[in-house]
């Protein structure tokens, strides 16, 4: 029997999807020459990306808390995990075709696939999830300071496979990079928040939605499908529209 959905959690994930889609549409407009923005260095865009990823990963932690609270067993967890991991592989293949010099080898879905397993194994930490999340968020800052002092010694951390940890002195050349640190901190905080809410304020997650919120909840329930389809659709439309409208 499928577990009951929590509309508020789905709506929060749906809001992240809407924000992400708008961000990617602007990125695609820039790629096709409709606008001129620096998505890699302009804080207006880099901070938006950080907030979108943070919201997604926080929701991933919340979802794990709910799944465990509803008694989800490992077989069902692994079925969902396989979907995420399979989609991550497709993202790598698609990005290599479009951006061969900066293809995505450890982006959002790759990170989520690893972090979901870590979250599942660490769910019993209880209140220690909060300081663990803080440490995870702080580690890359400490790593950058260490790289400044011992660049040669720590150079292996800048290279794959160790770069997936996020303890780098410089960002790898890739279109999307979501390493374990600091982002595992957001998953742990989402997991801790979800456990706290389920224990003390369950109505905050299970309550109803305001008018119009149902659309966001529906979108949140299909977040992985939307994530995989929205960019091919946007890029396809702009590929056709650009030569027609920019004559």
How would you describe this structure to a colleague?
The protein has one domain (about 5-245). The radius of gyration is 19 Å and the shape is globular. It has helices at about 5-30, 45-70, 75-100, 110-120, 130-150, 150-155, 180-200, 200-205, 215-220, 225-245. Helices cover about 70% and strands about 0% of the residues. With about 250 residues, it is an all-alpha fold. The longest helix is centred in the N-terminal third of the chain and has 27 residues, at about 45-70. α1 (about 5-30) crosses α9 (about 215-220), α1 (about 5-30) packs parallel to α10 (about 225-245) and α3 (about 75-100) runs antiparallel to α4. It has 10 helices and no strands.
């Amino acid at each position: 029997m499928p577990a009951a959905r929590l509309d508020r959690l789905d709506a929060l994930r749906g809001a992240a999807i809407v924000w992400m889609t708008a961000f990617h549409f602007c990125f695609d407009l820039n790629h096709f020459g409709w606008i001129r923005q620096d998505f890699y260095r302009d804080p207006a865009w880099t901070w938006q990306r950080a907030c979108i990823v943070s919201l997604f990963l926080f929701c991933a932690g919340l979802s794990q808390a709910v799944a465990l609270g509803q008694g989800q067993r490992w077989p069902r967890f692994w079925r969902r995990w396989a979907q995420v991991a399979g989609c991550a592989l497709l993202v790598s293949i698609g990005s290599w075709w479009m951006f061969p010099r900066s293809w995505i080898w450890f982006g959002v879905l790759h990170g989520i696939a690893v972090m979901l397993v870590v979250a599942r194994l660490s769910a019993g930490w209880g209140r220690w999830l909060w300081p663990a999340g803080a440490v995870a968020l702080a580690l890359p800052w400490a790593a950058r300071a260490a790289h400044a002092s011992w660049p040669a010694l720590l150079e292996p951390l800048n290279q794959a496979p160790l770069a997936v940890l996020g303890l780098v002195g410089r960002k790898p050349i890739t279109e999307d990079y979501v390493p374990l640190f600091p982002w595992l901190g957001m998953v742990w905080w989402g997991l801790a928040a979800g456990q706290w809410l389920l224990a003390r304020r369950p109505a905050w997650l299970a309550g109803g939605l305001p008018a119009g919120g149902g659309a966001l909840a529906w979108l949140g329930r299909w977040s992985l499908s939307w994530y995989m389809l929205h960019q091919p659709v946007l890029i396809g439309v702009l590929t056709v529209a650009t030569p027609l409208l920019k004559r």
